[in-house]
C-alpha cells in the first residue's frame, strides 16, 4: 500500500468505477468525481496528493482545452500538486503543451493497469519529495535565528540539578509530555533541548515557539498554518509550527500566557493530533512530542479559572521544576566560569580567572534574572575589562541591585515577586520599556502583558 491519496476526475462512470476498484488496492485513499467544478470543495476538505484529470468533459470535445484550463486552476491552488492528465485522443502536441503547463505526466485511455500503477507510483514519490522540500524551506525560514544561535547545555553540580538530570534521562526516550516550571532565566529552553537531544526524535526538528511574544491574532496562523487566500496577505499556503515539527519536538514556551480561548484551541489539537489550517476544513495529522514551559503558577491559575485544568493534565505528564540560581550554591561560580570561557573565546581574549572579591560579589547577589542575567553580566565584563582576570568593578553590579536580595530570598509568592521585579525595572529605567525588558530578560510584548496583568 502506497502512502498517497488519489483524486480521479472523469465524466464517465465506468472509468471512475474501474479506477476506484483498481487503485484502492494500492493507495491509501481514492476519491472520484464526475465534474472538475467540484475540485475546490474536494481539495479544501481532503488531503490529496495526485490528481488524475480527464481532458474533455463537453460532449464531442476532443481538443483537451478543458483539461488544460483545470490543470492551471489546480496548480494555482498548490503548484506542488501532482496532476496526471488522461484522454482517449492521443495527441503528442497536446501532451507537450500539458507538460509545459505543469502536468507531471500524460496517459491514454483505455489504460493498462501496470502502466497506470507505474505512473501513479512515480507521481507519489515526486509528491512526497516536493512536500519534504517545501517543509524544509519553511522550517529554514522560520527557525534560522535559532539555527544561528548555539544552544547552551546543562551546567551544574548542585544536588537539585543532578536530580533533574536523572529525571531527564528517564523521561527523554519516551514521548511523554513534559512541563518545565521555573522563574525567568532559569534555563527552561536548555532543559527542553536536552530532552529532545536525548529522545528518539533527536534527528528530527526541535521547534521552539515563544507564545509570550506571539500576538493573539496570529496564534492560529502561526501554530496551525493557513491556506492561500485565507486573509489579505495570505499569498501562498503556509504550514504552521505544528506541521513543521511533525516527527520531532515542539517546545511551547510561556504557555501560561495563553488566553482561555487559545487554550481551548490548543487543547483540541493536542487531543485529536490533527491541525486545520486557516481557510481550510481538512484535518492534517501531526506526530509531535510536546514540551511546555512557564514561569507562572499554573495550579493557582486553574483554581482561579484562568487556566484550563484539562489542558494542564494534557501537558504535564512529567513536571520538571527548575530552581532559581540563588538556590544553587556553588553552581553560581561554575556557571560564571563556563560563561567566562565562552565569551573569552568569542571576543578573542585570554581571560582565565575571576578574582576572589568578584566571586564573593557573585555569591552575594540575588540574581532576579537568574542564569540569563549572569550570562549577560559575564559577557559585559569580558567585553569591558582590560585585565586578564575579572574584578568586582568589571561586574558592574551596583549596590542598588543588592537591595532586592533580602526580599527575593523570602517565601514571597511568585506572582508578588514578579510584580515587584517588573515595577522596580520600570522605575529604574524611568518607563523605558525596551531597557526594562532587557534587564528582566523578557521581550517587549511579554513585559507589556505583565504590566497589564499586574495593573502597573
From TrEMBL:
<feature type="domain" description="Response regulatory">
    <location>
        <begin position="5"/>
        <end position="124"/>
    </location>
</feature>
<keyword id="KW-0804">Transcription</keyword>
<feature type="domain" description="Sigma-54 factor interaction">
    <location>
        <begin position="154"/>
        <end position="383"/>
    </location>
</feature>
<protein>
    <submittedName>
        <fullName>Sigma-54-dependent Fis family transcriptional regulator</fullName>
    </submittedName>
</protein>
<keyword id="KW-0597">Phosphoprotein</keyword>
<dbReference type="GO" id="GO:0043565">
    <property type="term" value="F:sequence-specific DNA binding"/>
</dbReference>
<dbReference type="GO" id="GO:0005524">
    <property type="term" value="F:ATP binding"/>
</dbReference>
<dbReference type="GO" id="GO:0000160">
    <property type="term" value="P:phosphorelay signal transduction system"/>
</dbReference>
<keyword id="KW-0067">ATP-binding</keyword>
<dbReference type="InterPro" id="IPR011006">
    <property type="entry name" value="CheY-like_superfamily"/>
</dbReference>
<dbReference type="InterPro" id="IPR002078">
    <property type="entry name" value="Sigma_54_int"/>
</dbReference>
<dbReference type="InterPro" id="IPR009057">
    <property type="entry name" value="Homeodomain-like_sf"/>
</dbReference>
<dbReference type="Pfam" id="PF25601">
    <property type="entry name" value="AAA_lid_14"/>
</dbReference>
<dbReference type="InterPro" id="IPR058031">
    <property type="entry name" value="AAA_lid_NorR"/>
</dbReference>
<dbReference type="InterPro" id="IPR001789">
    <property type="entry name" value="Sig_transdc_resp-reg_receiver"/>
</dbReference>
<dbReference type="InterPro" id="IPR003593">
    <property type="entry name" value="AAA+_ATPase"/>
</dbReference>
<dbReference type="GO" id="GO:0006355">
    <property type="term" value="P:regulation of DNA-templated transcription"/>
</dbReference>
<keyword id="KW-0805">Transcription regulation</keyword>
<dbReference type="InterPro" id="IPR027417">
    <property type="entry name" value="P-loop_NTPase"/>
</dbReference>
<dbReference type="InterPro" id="IPR025943">
    <property type="entry name" value="Sigma_54_int_dom_ATP-bd_2"/>
</dbReference>
<dbReference type="Pfam" id="PF02954">
    <property type="entry name" value="HTH_8"/>
</dbReference>
<dbReference type="Pfam" id="PF00158">
    <property type="entry name" value="Sigma54_activat"/>
</dbReference>
<feature type="modified residue" description="4-aspartylphosphate">
    <location>
        <position position="54"/>
    </location>
</feature>
<dbReference type="Pfam" id="PF00072">
    <property type="entry name" value="Response_reg"/>
</dbReference>
<keyword id="KW-0238">DNA-binding</keyword>
<dbReference type="InterPro" id="IPR025944">
    <property type="entry name" value="Sigma_54_int_dom_CS"/>
</dbReference>
<dbReference type="InterPro" id="IPR002197">
    <property type="entry name" value="HTH_Fis"/>
</dbReference>
<keyword id="KW-0547">Nucleotide-binding</keyword>
Amino acid at each position: 500500500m502506497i502512502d498517497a491519496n488519489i483524486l480521479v476526475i472523469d465524466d464517465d462512470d465506468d472509468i471512475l468505477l474501474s479506477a476506484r476498484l483498481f487503485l484502492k488496492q494500492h493507495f491509501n485513499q481514492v476519491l472520484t468525481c464526475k465534474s472538475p467544478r467540484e475540485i475546490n470543495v474536494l481539495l479544501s476538505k481532503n488531503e490529496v496528493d495526485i490528481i488524475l484529470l480527464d481532458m474533455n468533459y463537453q460532449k464531442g470535445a476532443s481538443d483537451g482545452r478543458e483539461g488544460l484550463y483545470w490543470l492551471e486552476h489546480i496548480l494555482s491552488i498548490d503548484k506542488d500538486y501532482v496532476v496526471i492528465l488522461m484522454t482517449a485522443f492521443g495527441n503528442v502536441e497536446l501532451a507537450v503543451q500539458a507538460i509545459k503547463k505543469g502536468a507531471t505526466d500524460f496517459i491514454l485511455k483505455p489504460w493498462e493497469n501496470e502502466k497506470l500503477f507505474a505512473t501513479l507510483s512515480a507521481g507519489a514519490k515526486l509528491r512526497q519529495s516536493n512536500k519534504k522540500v517545501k517543509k524544509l524551506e519553511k522550517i529554514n525560514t522560520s527557525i534560522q535565528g535559532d539555527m544561528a544561535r548555539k544552544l547552551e547545555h546543562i551546567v551544574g553540580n548542585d544536588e537539585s540539578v543532578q536530580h533533574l538530570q536523572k529525571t531527564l534521562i528517564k523521561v527523554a526516550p519516551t514521548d511523554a509530555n513534559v512541563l518545565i516550571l521555573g522563574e525567568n532565566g532559569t534555563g527552561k529552553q536548555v532543559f527542553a533541548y536536552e530532552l529532545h537531544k536525548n529522545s528518539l526524535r533527536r534527528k528530527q526538528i526541535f521547534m521552539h515557539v515563544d507564545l509570550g511574544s506571539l500576538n493573539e491574532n496570529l496564534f492560529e496562523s502561526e501554530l496551525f498554518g493557513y491556506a492561500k487566500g485565507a486573509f489579505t496577505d495570505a499569498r501562498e499556503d503556509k504550514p504552521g509550527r505544528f506541521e513543521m515539527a511533525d516527527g520531532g519536538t515542539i517546545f511551547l514556551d510561556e504557555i501560561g500566557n495563553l488566553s482561555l480561548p487559545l487554550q481551548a484551541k490548543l487543547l483540541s489539537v493536542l487531543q485529536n493530533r490533527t491541525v486545520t489550517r486557516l481557510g481550510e476544513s481538512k484535518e492534517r495529522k501531526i506526530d509531535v512530542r510536546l514540551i511546555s514551559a512557564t514561569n507562572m503558577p499554573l495550579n493557582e491559575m486553574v483554581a482561579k479559572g484562568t487556566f484550563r485544568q484539562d489542558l494542564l493534565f494534557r501537558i504535564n505528564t512529567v513536571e520538571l521544576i527548575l530552581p532559581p540560581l540563588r538556590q544553587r550554591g556553588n553552581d553560581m561560580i561554575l556557571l560564571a566560569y563556563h560563561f567566562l570561557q565562552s565569551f573569552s573565546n568569542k571576543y578573542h581574549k585570554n581571560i582565565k580567572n575571576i578574582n576572589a572579591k568578584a566571586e564573593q560579589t557573585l555569591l552575594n547577589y540575588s540574581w532576579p534574572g537568574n542564569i540569563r542575567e549572569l550570562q549577560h553580566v559575564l559577557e559585559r565584563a569580558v567585553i569591558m575589562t582590560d585585565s586578564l582576570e575579572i574584578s568586582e568593578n568589571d561586574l558592574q553590579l551596583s549596590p542598588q541591585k543588592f537591595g532586592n536580595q533580602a526580599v527575593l530570598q523570602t517565601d514571597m509568592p511568585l506572582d508578588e515577586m514578579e510584580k515587584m521585579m517588573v515595577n522596580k525595572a520600570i522605575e529604574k529605567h524611568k518607563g523605558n520599556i525596551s531597557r526594562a525588558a532587557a534587564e528582566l530578560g523578557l521581550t517587549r510584548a511579554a513585559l507589556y502583558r505583565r504590566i497589564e496583568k499586574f495593573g502597573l
